[in-house]
Design the sequence.
């Protein structure tokens, strides 16, 4: 497995979507935290987000995060870039070029992954609430695969969904992509938050995670996605008034990461999301 983290700073609670007062990105402290999190792992993923708006105005409070992923490279780090689709009018051509540029940038950073679209099975403010999202993601995947091949770069191209895998959603995704692109996906992503939207006992978290991953694999195989396509899992545990960072440390997957995260409890609190590729 390859573990990683999104080192961004959010402007709103990711569950309740209420505004938050957060400090600006602190590059030096983030670099230090990444070094501690990575430990002695040979590879470590840096999750990043970009947002395509087409001809629309930028979303309030939404920007590329982190602003410059290249600042966090080094020692086996891989860029895991999400090319979000947030166009208010359908624009598959513009989005395809947006994905091509994302592939070029990840190649320049040394390789990694480009996820095309973000959780199309979730309505606005995520990508599933924007018109033409399936057609745009299909165009983006085709463009990303083509650009990756043209460059000869080591970059995985994939799509994702959130929560328990829905057969109807994944069948629609495969129809939109077409058999050519669907058969060439390198990964299928899963936004997996078994203990975020409602609390569950700690001893049930692992079982919930296994259920979600196994269901994703079963449903996507049935939909026609290749068995060689790897799952890529993103999970997070909520922090805040009802759940302190200490519990979040206990839910982190690996022992050496738990130890290193525990050292950070003494520092001012900061929201983190873990990223795991299976």
Sequence:
């Amino acid at each position: 497995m390859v573990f990683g983290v999104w080192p961004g700073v959010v402007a709103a609670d990711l569950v309740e979507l209420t505004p938050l007062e957060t400090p600006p990105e602190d590059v030096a402290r983030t670099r230090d935290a990444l070094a501690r999190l990575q430990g002695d792992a040979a590879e470590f993923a840096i999750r990043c987000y970009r947002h395509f708006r087409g001809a629309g105005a930028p979303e309030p409070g939404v920007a590329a995060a982190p602003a410059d992923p290249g600042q966090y490279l080094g020692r086996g780090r891989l860029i895991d870039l999400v090319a979000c689709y947030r166009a208010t009018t359908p624009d598959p051509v513009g989005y395809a070029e947006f994905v091509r540029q994302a592939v070029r940038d990840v190649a320049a950073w040394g390789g990694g992954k480009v996820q095309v679209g973000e959780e199309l099975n979730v309505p606005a403010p995520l990508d599933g609430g924007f018109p033409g999202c399936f057609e745009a993601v299909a165009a983006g995947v085709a463009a990303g695969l083509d650009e990756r091949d043209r460059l000869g770069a080591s970059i995985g191209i994939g799509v994702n969904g959130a929560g328990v895998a829905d057969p109807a959603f994944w069948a629609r995704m495969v129809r939109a992509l077409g058999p050519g692109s669907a058969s060439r996906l390198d990964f299928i992503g899963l936004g997996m938050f078994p203990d975020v939207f409602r609390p569950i006992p700690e001893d049930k978290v692992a079982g919930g995670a296994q259920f979600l991953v196994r269901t994703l694999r079963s449903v996507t195989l049935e939909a026609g996605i290749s068995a060689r396509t790897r799952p890529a899992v993103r999970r997070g545990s909520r922090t805040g008034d009802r759940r302190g960072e200490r519990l979040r440390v206990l839910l982190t997957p690996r022992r050496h990461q738990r130890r290193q995260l525990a050292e950070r409890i003494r520092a001012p609190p900061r929201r983190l999301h873990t990223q795991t590729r299976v």
